[in-house]
Design a protein that fits this description.
Layout (H helix, E strand, L loop, with lengths): L1 E5 L3 H12 L4 E4 L8 H5 L10 E5 L5 H4 L11 E6 L7 H6 L4 E4 L8 H11 L3 H11 L5 H18 L3 H19 L4 H12 L3
Parallel strand pairs: 1-4, 1-5, 2-3, 3-4
């Protein structure tokens, strides 16, 4: 089984990934896959499991290798590709679209989207001010939706300027994602904690 999920609503995409793969799966960065690794990833078995569960992130950006994907549709494993963007004009997409599930997860238009972007931008330098800005729109937002928008802005920020701070922000947001789903603390409190710490990353 191969599925492709793409779009900016990473929260819903993650929920769907867990529904399909469970909590225990391998994660592979698509940018690190060489053509020679394709058979071992898509067809190779582990010592303990015949069927592997694998999440591959941003594989389509690795165009020369991604275009070989149609050759491995007979994989015995459960594999999900999580893409930020997907080029629907590409020959690879056209070869896959009628053979595997391809699902888009898009964030709905948000009237506070501009303010979320501003909050993220300000938090890079001044966490306290970012929290003050959040207080003004918090009552109109749902925390997980706001978190999804934060992740979306962080990804855009990293794509525009892939520096150390931007990379670290994505890692910290990944940790925050786990906390939001498992901690008994208030979701807003956890998000505010991230905004406060962001400036010092």
């Amino acid at each position: 089984m191969i599925k492709i999920y793409y779009g900016d609503d990473r929260v819903k995409a993650k929920q769907e990934i867990i529904k399909n793969l469970g909590d225990d799966y391998e994660v592979i960065e698509g940018s690190e896959i060489e053509p020679s690794l394709m058979p071992s990833i898509f067809l190779g078995q582990s010592l303990f499991e015949v069927e592997r569960k694998i999440l591959i992130r941003d594989f389509s950006a690795n165009k020369n290798v991604f275009e070989k994907l149609p050759e491995f549709l007979n994989t015995p494993h459960k594999i999900i590709l999580l893409e930020s963007k997907l080029d629907k004009r590409s020959a690879t997409f056209k070869a896959l679209k009628d053979k595997i599930e391809i699902k888009e997860f898009s964030l709905p238009p948000d009237r506070n989207m501009g303010q979320v972007f501003d909050i993220y931008k300000i938090a890079k330098k001044d966490g306290k001010r970012a929290i003050e800005m959040l207080e003004k729109i918090k009552n109109q937002e749902e925390p997980m939706m706001f978190f999804g928008l934060l992740v979306s802005q962080a990804i855009k920020d990293y794509n525009y300027n892939p520096g150390k701070k931007e990379k670290k922000a994505l890692k910290e947001l990944s940790k925050l994602d786990v906390k939001l789903k498992s901690s008994k603390l208030s979701s807003w409190l956890l998000i505010e904690s991230f905004l406060l710490e962001f400036s010092s990353l």
